[in-house]
Amino acid sequence: MRNLPNIATFDVQRHQAQGTFTMDSSAHANLAFAQKWLVDRGCPPEATTANNPFKPANDLTTLVEEQIHRSGDRYDLIEVKAADEDPTQAWTMAVDKEATELPVRVFVEQTQPGQGTYTVREGAFADYAAAEDWVEEQATTPPEPPEYRRDALRTRAALARSTTSPASAAAVLASAPAAAALAQPGRGRSL
């Protein structure tokens, strides 16, 4: 069903002396946020990935998931949505308390069941309305957070200072295309 979270997590605490238990639960649309919720409550991280039949489709997916896992209290969740279509898509919308610009983030997870893989992308928006419009339309890939561009620029600057051979530097630069477009020096006075 569209727009309903498709992952439920449970934290069950047994109180053997009293013969009772307490339970907390939460609904999620993205697996990384479900895993984070469990780990935050004491679940060993390796236990959250033990039975996952799907694997990350690429390195960016792994990086975004690791960012979510390490985020602490960085994100205030606003909304979660999922669409059990083919391919399955899920969205988690959050406010990034550390973002200096474009604070509303949308984490999009898309599962490719036939391939046994999934991708996770992060989009950055100025406000809730812009993020909600993108989720409803999805005519393009989500706009990258400004931090991605800054990281790519740092990589380019580090390569410029390195003693790496030009061939291997070119290979690294090719993996950061946003940096090439942003780092072209302009004409005029340098600051």
Question: Your description of this structure?
Answer:
- By secondary structure, the protein is of the alpha+beta class.
- It has 2 domains: 122 residues, no CATH class; 31 residues, no CATH class.
- The chain is 32% helix and 29% strand.
- It has 6 helices and 7 strands, in the order E-E-H-E-H-E-E-E-E-H-H-H-H.
- The strands form 2 sheets. The protein has a 5-stranded mixed sheet with strand order 3-7-6-5-4.
- Helix 1 runs parallel beside helix 2.
- The longest helix is centred in the C-terminal third of the chain and has 16 residues.
- The protein starts with 6 loop residues before the first strand and ends in a 9-residue tail after the last helix.
- The C terminus is likely disordered.
Features:
191 residues, five-stranded mixed sheet, two-stranded antiparallel ribbon, 32% helix, disordered C terminus
Secondary structure elements and pairings:
Blueprint (H helix, E strand, L loop, with lengths): L6 E9 L4 E9 L2 H10 L14 E2 L2 H11 L5 E9 L4 E9 L7 E9 L4 E9 L2 H10 L8 H16 L4 H9 L2 H6 L9
Parallel strand pairs: 3-7
Antiparallel strand pairs: 1-2, 4-5, 5-6, 6-7
